[in-house]
Amino acid sequence: MKPSHHRRALGFAAAALASSFWGCGFYFGKIALEEMSVGSMVFYRFFFATLGLLPLLVTNRPRFTAAEWRTLLWAGFLGVPLQFLLQFKGLSLTTVSHASLMVGTMPVILAVGAVLYAKEHLHALGWWALGLSTAGACLIALGAGTHRVANGPTVIGDLLVVASMFIALGWILFNKRLMETHSAVVVTAYGTVAGALMLALIVPLAFGAPPVHGVSARAWGALAASGLLCTATTTLLWNWGMTQVPASQAGVLLNMEPLIGSLLGVFLLQERLGPLAWIGGGMILVAAVTLTTRPGAPLEDPAMV
């Protein structure tokens, strides 16, 4: 059954809100990275996310087939340890502005992946909106000033963040396949917790045991917000939104992430946001409104092959 226009609008709203919360992730991550390694930061992020998802594990029983469990585990591996360890290793080697620029490539990666692998159709105006929003994300990152010149961007850091975006594509498409027959709540809760359990095995071996003592309340607060708000809440919102709208269309809303990240830099980190960044933010909003309010936009979301 095709989703109604009302549910489609709610789906876009959920995806936009998820992307906005994701935009806080680099800010909270930078705070935690001042006191611990990449592995420890990612481990605690998903520790808090798991705590937030525990009620859903208790109240929602999975009914996956053996093949679906394999898909869920692959999605959990790609979406949690592999994507996040790579992405935040990149963040540790570059700036928040440059990391946001690299994340701005995700909508194009998602749209192309959805068209090639999920057989979705994206109209010409949709491609225009994706291009406009991605260009806007680039302008935001290029226009954002920073006072932490000594810790400037590096090529390797930027490339690691880009690589994590391609991994995120696999996570999104695997989740969409599972959500054709299972609820977004079940897929989100069990997939995230499965990935967190993988982290619990990988992090001590690769980075050493995560610290328990000597961590400031500021860092703990950032980790808790990162897990509960930027992981558990966002993944639930995003996965539910993906059941209401095609991934190729919702992808444009991922560019809310660099927009929010830049605003946090201005108001909380005292970064200077130049004219190019303000123009870029306007481009993102225009693209998002154009895509989500276009009359006659397709509501169907064909099954993946």
Give me the secondary-structure category.
mainly alpha
Provide a count of the helices.
13
> How far apart are the first and last residues' alpha carbons, in Å?
19 Å
Question: Could you report the average pLDDT, rounded to the nearest whole number?
Answer: 81
Strand content: under 5%
Low-confidence blocks of residues: 145-149, 296-305
The radius of gyration is: 18 Å
Number of strands: 0
Series of secondary-structure elements, N-terminal to C-terminal: HHHHHHHHHHHHH
Helix content: over 70%
Number of structural domains: 1
Q: Could you give a short account of the major beta sheet?
A: none
The general outline is: globular
Describe it for me?
There is one protein chain. The chain has 305 residues and is mostly helical. It has one domain (18-293). It has helices at 5-22, 25-33, 38-59, 66-93, 96-103, 106-117, 124-143, 155-178, 184-207, 217-242, 247-250, 256-268, 275-293. The longest helix is centred in the first third of the chain and has 28 residues, at 66-93. It is globular and about 50 Å long. The two termini are 19 Å apart.
